[in-house]
Structure formats: C-alpha cells, structure tokens
Write a structure and sequence with these properties.
This protein has 429 residues and is α+β, with helices and mostly antiparallel strands. The chain has helices at 27-37, 40-51, 53-64, 74-86, 148-163, 187-194, 245-257, 298-322, 350-361, 376-381, 408-426, and strands spanning 7-8, 11-12, 90-94, 100-104, 113-119, 133-135, 138-140, 171-177, 202-209, 214-219, 221-230, 234-235, 267-276, 282-283, 286-295, 331-340, 343-344, 367-371, 385-389, 394-395, 403-405. The protein is 34% helix and 25% strand. The longest helix is centred in the last third of the chain and has 25 residues, at 298-322. It binds zinc ion (ZN). Zinc ion (ZN) binds at residues 1, 119, 146-147, 180, 209, 373.
C-alpha cells in the first residue's frame, strides 16, 4: 500500500488520506448488522478470534520471517498456500502469476464470488534481515505491518467462519497475492481480474491492509516513468564544449518542477531517482531520472502525463543549441515503468455502506479515504471494492524499523468488523 501518513489515535494509519466527516450507514442497515453481530453464531466467531489471538501473532512472525521481495514471493506463497489449506479452504493453488488462493464454497452453487486479499510482497530487497525483534508489546521487522498483518488475520477470519458454522450464498476466495508494492505494479490483482479462472465471477472485492477504523473507497492512480538522456560522451577537459545529457536532464527537471497541479483532487509529482555518468572527469553518455505522478482524478493524471511529454524535447533542444553537437546530439528515451488506474467506489454503494454499518455497530464512525493498493484494479473496472483494516496498530511502514503493536482488544474489534462485512457481502446483502 502506498503511503500518506496520518497520525490518528497515536499511531500511523498509512493508507488514509483526506479523511472526511464521520460516516454513518442508514439505520435499517445498521439494525440488520446489529442483529448479525449479536447472533449466537457470531458469538462463536468472536470466541474463535479471541482464542486464536496467540496463533495470529505466531503466524504473523512466521510469515514475516519468510522474505518476500517484489517478484520473489514464491517461498512465502508456498508457505501461505499450506496455511490456507490448514485453515480449511479447498482448491488451494498457486496460480501462474504466483498468487496463493483457496475457496470457501457457498450454498448458491456458483457464479458471483467475493475475493478477499492480502498481499504477500514487501518493498524490501533480497537480503534484508526480516528476523522479528520483540520489544515489549511491539514486534519489529521490515514488512511485518504491510501487509503481513493482513495475511495473518485473513487466516483467522477463515477459521472463525468455519468454527461458527457460517454458510454464505456466494463463494469466497481468500488469497495472498503477489505484486502489490511499487515494481509489482498490482500484477497479482491484475491477473485475478484478467486471466484467473475466477476472472468473470469476481463481483465484489476486499483487500486487507494495515489500518483500523477506516474504509478506503478511492484508488489514487499513478504513472511512473524512467527518462534516459543520451549523449556522445567525452573527456571533461579534452572535449569541453560538447553537449551534456546532464544539462538536458536539468532543463527537464526544472520544467517538470514547475508543473501546476490542483490541491483537490489531490495530484502530485516527484523526481525520485537521478542517476548516470561514469566518472567526475567524463562528460556522461547517459543520465536518467525516475518520475512518479499521482492523482485521485484520471483527468488530472492524464494532464500530468501530457505535461511531462511536452517538456522533454524542448529540454533536449535547449541543450543541443547551447553547446556543440560535433560529436553527436542529445536524445532521450521515455520508459513507462508503472501505471495504476484511478478508481472510486461510490460512498453510497452497498459495499461501503455494509462496511460502515459494521463499524457503526462496534461504535466506530469510520474514516473514508483514498489509497493506492490492490483495490485500484477492481475500482477502475467498476467492480465494488474497498480496503479494510487488519486492525493492528503499525508504524514505519516501508522502513527497516517497521513495527506492529500487539494490541488485542482493538485489533479483534476490527476483525469482527471485517468478518461481519464479509458475511453480509457474501450473502448478497
Ligand atoms: Zn500494503
């Protein structure tokens, strides 16, 4: 999940942005949800979650200590598939993209299904120490919060459904998916909707990410590029006066930095990496910059894209005019390295109202917000999707000192909300 930090209730809620006014579901829906959450079956589910607490924490530690860098999630996927089987799911498999999934069959014999996901991958490269350190009530390790908490609680939700004997009309597919973080570019979720055996049946979607008391209803879109500027290169002294791709890139960065974007819908841009050259006394052959642009609005993101494309050739031309092209001219190559579609699940849609009603029953008025996560894919396709919380307080997401607080009461309350939401949606209500 991509970050915009909001400090609420003393811990970081990484995916929340633009919290809006308190959210309340229509009264009849809240009443219905209240009946479900007060039922004897739901009481059994609560007991299951409660008695599972140590196991949730144990699974969290076990999974965190299996590294899962982008494109290298296979070992964790294999372990997770075994856990999905142990939790009682059937048709457990690792698909061609690398997602681990299993199904909990409904009574309806078929078509529409609910997909519930947490992502396997972390942002950390191979070789990162993921050994979990215990510090009081905190567990610390890279990737432990985002999104290993989601993986661990998803298993507990499956067990609670079974122990409480809940039957749902629709099938529910539970999955640990690959490729959520940056370079993965949502490949696991794209696969589910474009190529998987479930692709035409997924009519509702939930992803579980580290947060609490929130319902993510918007998907912030992004476009990412690497722009490489090429030149003839030469000796810094002997060939002084020839065109230099670093100056062309500087022209481009200066122009890029002057892009005008609205505050609302929130639209941003960044040059994140600059690289290139070979030595201090060489005019470089190649330099490059890596760019990230994001917006809650497709139109604004398209404008950013057009702006970027409009400034590159003038930046190059300026350098080709400023110095000698006797050894060759500056050119550039534009490589797209990522794209996340913009999406939105309307706040008055059933899926948002159901999740809100469940929060209301436990006394919470959830915050709505936009994030950048697996939900972007179904949202962009018009398939109802929300991102819900794994409940654990977390901090330092995407940093080496990432932590999770082992706080039982609030986390279990969030899991009850997740469970009630899943049951209601899978019953087509
Ligand atoms: Zn995440």
């Amino acid at each position: 999940m991509s970050k915009r930090l909001a400090l609420v209730a003393g811990f970081a809620l990484p995916m929340l942005v633009q919290p809006v006014s308190a959210q309340t579901a229509p009264a009849p829906m809240v009443a219905k949800m209240k009946a479900l959450m007060a039922s004897p079956a739901f009481a059994k589910a609560k007991t299951s979650l409660d008695s599972d607490w140590d196991r949730i924490v144990k699974d969290l530690v076990t999974l965190t200590e299996i590294p899962a860098p982008p494109f290298k999630e296979a070992t964790r996927a294999k372990a997770y598939a075994a856990m999905l089987t142990e939790a009682g799911l059937t048709d457990v498999e690792i698909d061609a993209e690398g997602n681990a999934s299993g199904i909990r069959k409904g009574t309806g014999g078929g078509a529409p299904l609910l997909l519930v996901q947490a992502h396997l991958d972390t942002v950390f490269p191979e070789g990162t120490d993921t050994h979990v350190k215990h510090e009081g009530d905190k567990l610390r390790a890279p990737g432990i919060g985002d999104d290993t908490t989601g993986l661990a609680v998803l298993l507990a939700l499956v067990r609670a459904l079974d122990r409480a004997g809940f039957k749902t009309k629709q099938d529910i597919v539970f999955a640990g998916n690959v490729g959520e973080e940056g370079p993965g570019d949502l490949r696991g979720t794209r696969y589910f909707f474009q190529k998987s055996k479930y692709k035409d049946r997924i009519k509702q979607f939930i992803s579980i990410e580290p947060s609490r008391e929130s319902v993510t209803t918007g998907g912030v879109g992004s476009k990412r590029y690497k722009v490489i500027f090429h030149g003839p290169g030469g000796h810094s002294y002997g060939n002084f006066g020839i065109v230099n791709p670093a100056y062309a890139m500087a022209n481009a960065i200066t122009a890029f930095s002057k892009m005008q974007v609205p505050a609302t819908p929130k639209t941003t841009f960044n040059v994140g990496i600059v690289e290139g050259g070979t030595s201090v006394n060489s005019v470089p052959h190649d330099v490059a910059m890596t760019i990230d642009m994001r917006s809650e609005s497709k139109a604004e993101l398209d404008k950013e894209d057009a702006y970027l494309k409009s400034i590159l050739q003038p930046a190059v031309d300026m350098e080709n005019k400023a110095r000698s092209t006797s050894r060759g001219s500056i050119t550039y190559t534009l490589q797209q390295i990522g794209e996340r579609p913009v999406g939105q699940t309307p706040e008055d849609s059933n899926i948002v109202r159901v999740a809100t009603a469940a929060q209301n029953v436990v006394g919470v008025t959830p915050r709505y917000g936009a994030g950048s996560s697996d939900s972007n894919i179904p949202m962009s396709l018009g398939i109802p999707a929300v991102t819900l919380g794994s409940g654990f307080p977390t901090g330092g997401n995407h940093a080496l000192d990432e932590w999770v607080q082992v706080e039982k009461a609030g986390t279990l309350r969030e899991l009850q909300v997740d469970l009630a939401t899943i049951i209601t949606l899978a019953n087509g209500q």
